[in-house]
Amino acid sequence: QSVLTQPPSASGTPGQRVTISCSGSRSNIGSNTAFWYRQIPGTAPKLLIYDNSQRPSGVPDRFSGSKSGTSASLTISGLRSEDEADYYCAAWDDSLSDVGFGGGTKLTVL
Amino acid sequence: EVQLVESGGGLVQPGGSLRLYCAASGFTFSSYWMHWVRQVPGKGLVWVSRIKTDGSRTNYADSVKGRFTISRDNARNTLYLQMNSLRAEDTAVYYCAKDLGGYYDFWGQGTLVTVSS
Question: Which residues pair with B57 in a beta bridge?
């Protein structure tokens, strides 16, 4: 049972915009910032978004993040085939005193 | 270039022990909190443990508390995870990760731990 709730799958065609949601609670996203990681199966996760909406250097501006209340979302614009991966949201959880992750969303580019 | 290289994984029987290593380079290791995160193949990410810069503070997920011990040697730029009383449900890929203020800016490639008889 993941601390944060994500849809298990999402899909889109090249060029489309896709949004992945991440639902939490007052003790995690509601009180702390959200992060997003991207993982290609068989490889290590990679930071995509930090502090709700900030992109590390090297991450294209096609990727954007936002937060509202106890939910966060990741939007990918101009979808490309290489965006196929698993996407995880995360946030510190004050109640658990540890990092809570979402269950991951598998993005398929049709 | 930041590098985190895990090692020490392998096959171990239930009830056995294993020690994982994470060799760090390319940054001032002693200045950062470090974490272990695990992932059952095909499943999601689960936080395991974290350790403060000087090793004076540690935290554990409830599922491993009392069985796992995180430690570090800043002189050797190495993070450790001592895993005792291993269970089948501890089978996973274990990643070490560098903490940049509540999030992980770098991850290692992971090391697979398989607990099975």
Answer: none
